[in-house]
Amino acid sequence: MTLERYVAICMPLRHGELCATCSTMHCILIIHGLSSVPCIVILCTFFASASLSFYKQYQICSVEMFIFHTWQDHLRSAVHTFQFLIMCIIVIFSYVKIMKVAKAASGEDKKSTKKGLRTVLLHGFQLLLCLIQLWCPFIESSLLQINVSLYEIVRYINFILFYLAPRCLSPLIYGLRDEVFFRALKHYASFGLHKRDII
Q: Where in the cell does this protein reside (predicted)?
């Protein structure tokens, strides 16, 4: 998402070529292939190590139940940390370049500059939420060892805040920027408040 925005704003003439369906599919396949390697290693080790009695036990469904060896936990932590660092570098580099181009493109028009920077900051916040989800497994695994009910609550909150919310922000950002949609939303919100006052 970040790189697509970087190409669209910083290299608009090559956007059609670089963000074509074929190249996008290749990128998605590479990302999924690389991200599935640690999961495959953990699952293969689990099936090789787990005894038949383990399958009859009552367990909380979590990744931690598949980890039998400490090296698996270290591998998982290392992969999450590496992914976090790579994504941080890409996001920071891309958004610094995007903000420079947006500022230069708007020139003296302060209103346009402010609007563009606000949109970039909203997208940055959206990506920050996506980055935080990489730290959720560490928090959840620590809480699982302390208290199971607290673990379930935090896991649910993490899912809402860091998995669902970032995906809902893009339609909301572009929807609120559209004047027709914003007026309709304002109308229905005020209509709902007016109706509640009558009741």
A: Membrane
Please tell me the distance from the alpha carbon of residue 124 to that of residue 92, in angstroms, as a whole number: 9
Share of the chain residues as helix, strand and coil, in percent rounded to the nearest 5: 90, 0, 10
Which residues contact residue 165 at a Cβ distance below 8 angstroms, ignoring those fewer than 6 apart?
Answer: 129
Closest CA to 116 of 69, 35, 173: 173
147 burial class (0-12, 13-18, 19+ CB within 10 angstroms)? exposed
Residue 197 has pLDDT above 60, yes or no: no
CA atoms within 13 A on the CB side of 160: 6
> Residues 59, 148: contact at Cβ < 8 Å?
no
Name the amino acid, one letter, at 34. Answer: L
- Distance CA(45)–CA(65), nearest Å, equals 12
Give the per-residue pLDDT at 108: 67
